[in-house]
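Researcher: Checking consistency across runs. Here is Transcription factor CP2 again:
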Amino acid sequence: MAWALKLPLADEVIESGLVQDFDASLSGIGQELGAGAYSMSTFSYVCGPLMFSPKNDVLALPIFKQEESSLPPDNENKILPFQYVLCAATSPAVKLHDETLTYLNQGQSYEIRMLDNRKLGELPEINGKLVKSIFRVVFHDRRLQYTEHQQLEGWRWNRPGDRILDIDIPMSVGIIDPRANPTQLNTVEFLWDPAKRTSVFIQVHCISTEFTMRKHGGEKGVPFRVQIDTFKENENGEYTEHLHSASCQIKVFKPKGADRKQKTDREKMEKRTPHEKEKYQPSYETTILTECSPWPEITYVNNSPSPGFNSSHSSFSLGEGNGSPNHQPEPPPPVTDNLLPTTTPQEAQQWLHRNRFSTFTRLFTNFSGADLLKLTRDDVIQICGPADGIRLFNALKGRMVRPRLTIYVCQESLQLREQQQQQQQQQQKQEDGDSNGTFFVYHAIYLEELTAVELTEKIAQLFSISPCQISQIYKQGPTGIHVLISDEMIQNFQEEACFILDTMKAETNDSYHIILK
């Protein structure tokens, strides 16, 4: 049906003004929604056949598809303070309603331009000051987000010493104090001045097919996200006040694989009809990162004792001959990280991160300790799924795993030796439990691996010494012989067996032998 309306001259003038106002209102619509790739020529080309067609009630454009947007409605007309541009072409095989997809080569340096997009007078508090940006490579699929920690740990195991994300510092411009946390393989951060030109070159070292479920060859790789979070300084000089976050979707291929994939997609699009091409986005030379929610901030607080051991030698002083430490060892402080009802929502977020529930921090953003502890087992399983739900429920209830073996040890002293000699002389029976009023303290040692190495480390930790100071561990056998402790012997220890520890100086070096009696 064609539109054929004859309007008077005055109406034509009004209509002309309305059209100009409509065109003006459309200018910059791509910038306001963070989709800088949309040009007005492209908009006119797509909207042209649709704008005056009575059969099309809704414009089929991704920028009008509200359910696809992850931003709150209040931000639709907001000019973003920063813009991040990844200098890599987008794929031409992406439909209009979908997010852009960019192919990267493994280990290749790609530039991301950090642009100051503020209006005059906007955010004056950061003028002349530095801001901090945190780069992350995370999973795009929700299924992999739930198991992100396990996926990254598996990658770390298969690629020891490698990182997922790195900064190419020699090629980067304007970045200050770049840092990469050794425990966070997929995160880097740096400071930069918005008033100066800043470009950071990043390298992604993992490929998308490393995280596929089945690997038969030729399978599709999983998509990642490059996310950038920018913060300003607070009153204490810490970069914790959030300014802006943006991200884009990527896939990483083996070297030169991204170029081949881009060429394949372009050839496929060339074979499509003009009508089919209208359903796909054109390929752009650069990728504009679109605004997103900030990544949950992780505060690294290490209140538990380090798994390493104190290497101080002064705490292990021996007397003449066969001696023992000159003081009763102090037991290590208990390692407890139980969630309390008085825990604040911010502390609850830190607890979730420390206990490997990072993927659920957004779901429990406003939950305090009391809120989490009120959840039933069924509630947690319904929210987090069966596997992580049971694990989170057990962590909330503070359920500890029973160790495989528990033994008790006591440090031998001169008083104990004299008492044993007196008991032998007086032929007192050990089963009578008569200790002549002397009180001896035993310490529990919990073993999980049931190995001689683990026992050595636990004894060294008990005495606050280095495991290197313990040369060998022996068990006193029949007729007083010394039997070398092995893994098999420990595996045959009785549960809650009691031992008295004695020490003997090694012949060759400054270390000592431990004897279990």
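Researcher: Does this match what you'd expect to see?
Model: One thing to look at in this run: The chain has a mean pLDDT of 74.
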